[in-house]
Amino acid sequence: MIAYIRGKIIQKNKQSLVIANEFIGYEVFVSKPLYEKSDLGKNLELFIYTKVREDEISLFGFADTDEMQFFKDLISVNGIGPKIGLEILSNNIEQTKTAIIQENAAFLSRIPGIGKKTAERLIVELKNKVTPADISHLPPSLETQFEEVVGALSSLGYQRGEIFKVLKTVPADITSNEEIITFFLRNI
If you average pLDDT over residues 84-93, what whole number do you get? Predict the structure, then answer.
C-alpha cells in the first residue's frame, strides 16, 4: 500500500495530479484547493490513501495527516465514496466540521453529491468523532486539555457537539480538568 509520495508534478488532469517519483508517475486524486495551488514542475509531498477495488487501484492525496483522517472518517459513512469525500474536502473543512457538530444538515446538503439523507447520516455517524482543528479561540489552558476533558464528558454520556459549545465559553482563570468539568456541568 502506498502511504506517502514526494515528487514533481508533471501533469494536471481534471481531478488529479500526476506526480513523478524517480521513474514512475503516480496519478493522485486531490481536493480542488490542493489542485489549484499545485503548479506544474513543482515538487509536492502528499500523504496517500490507497483505495483498492477488484478492477482498479486509486490514490487520493492530502497535504497533512489530519486532512487524510477526516477523509477516512467521511468515507466510513455509508453512501460517501472517495470522490464525494474529496468534494466535501473541497469546501472549507472547518465549516464542514462545525456543520457536523452543530447538526446543520442544510449546510451539508449544499455540497454537490450530498442529499438531505446523506447529510443526516454524516451528522449521526460523525458528530462524536469530529473535532474542529482550530481550537485557538479556546482559553490557552484548555487547548492542551481539550481531548482529555472531552473524553471524560463523553464517558458521562454528553455529545461532542454540546461539549464543544460549552467549552468555548470557559473563562481563562479555570485551568484544572476538574474545574473545567464542573463549569461544563453547571453551564450545560
Answer: 90
Q: Which of 58, 70, 75, 122 is nearest to 94 (CA)?
A: 70
Q: What Cα–Cα distance (Å) separates residue 120 from each residue in 11, 99, 115, 135? A: 37, 11, 9, 25
CB 159 within 8 A of CB 128: yes
Give the largest CA-CA distance in the chain: 62
Which CATH architecture does the domain made up of 4-62 adopt?
A: Beta Barrel (2.40)
In sequence order, the 6+-apart residues with CB closer than 8 A to the CB of 140 are 172
C-alpha cell of residue 23: 521513474
CATH class of domain segment(s) 65-126: mainly alpha
Give pairs for 14-21: CB < 8 Å, separation 24+: 15/83, 15/86, 17/44, 17/61, 19/44, 19/46, 19/61
- Closest by CA position to 84, among listed 118, 113, 56, 108: 113
For residues 118 and 80, is the Cβ–Cβ distance under 8 A?
A: yes
80/69 Cα distance (integer angstroms): 15
pLDDT per residue as tens digits for the range 158-188: 877 777 778 777 887 777 888 888 888 888 8
Domain ranges of the chain: 4-62, 65-126, 140-187
